[in-house]
Amino acid sequence: MKKHIIAITVLSAMLALTGCGTAGDAPEQSGSEAATTQTSDQTTVASTSETSTGTTTAAATSTKEEGSEKTAVSGENSSTSQGTTAQETAASGNDDADKPNAYGYYEVKNPPASGVSVAALNGVWLSADDMAQTIVVTEGSDIYHGNYTYTDGGGNSTNGEVKLEYSLTPDSTEEYWYTFYNNDGSLWQAFGVTGDIPLDDIYGGQSGFPHYTRTGSDANVGSGEGTVTGDDFVGVWGCGRCTINISPESDGYRVDITWGSSAAESSVWTYLCYYNEFANAIACSSGGVNTNVVYSEDGTHVDTVVYDDGGAEFTISNGVLTWNDYVDNCAEGMAFVK
User: Which end of the chain is less crowded, N or C, counting CB atoms within 10 A of the terminal residue's CB?
Assistant: First the structure.
């Protein structure tokens, strides 16, 4: 009986141990599976997150790189475009600087060290060949630019601008010029730059014509009463056998000169002159007529025109009239008084 009870007890103990083992194994397996599942899920999420993040990062990087590439390309094109424009502008500027104008003169970028300037021309200039013609130069925007007014012997005037420019000789040597341009841009005259100080004479072109001289600061004085006016010339002036009769006519003055070489022969000059306030003179640039007159015993006379394109200038100083004949200078040294 006791053996039978012991056997039952042992068998019950073995069954209990087996049940505990089964019960203990199940939770452990379930936990392992849960852990595995959780780990797998976490791995999946992480992987998905990583993949998503990587994709996003890659996409952003790709977009950024693409944007950078576009920016770089755009920048490169912009830079190239700006560089080309700058080069074209520079080239255009250089072309303009290196090309002469229609008259063969170049703009002076670097003035000569000698101090040559247009400002040196400021003042009044008289033609050495026809003192009825004057040039008045006044200051411009700087010392290398000026303004001028040219007046001819007929009372006509021209205005424009004076520049300091240069031309090139066949061996590329620079020659400097005072260039006078009319208001319409056409070239009126160019005078060579000599660099002389003081500057009292200017010569045009390669030939040296026309030639202008600077007037002095002291004006001719008529009758000791101040600056000469046009009306100071009116009247009859004489020197020896030569008589000058000056009278107002139109907007100028008519000058009739009679010079008798004998009782039967004389020379006559007729001029229509205009008053030049800068030269304090009356002058005729052209159109003056010189006639040789021969009288016969019956009172008739024969007139022979010697020339009809003469010119002359008349000035007054200290009450004395001077006649400057442009053709023959026949009155040199003569002083006419009223």
Answer: N
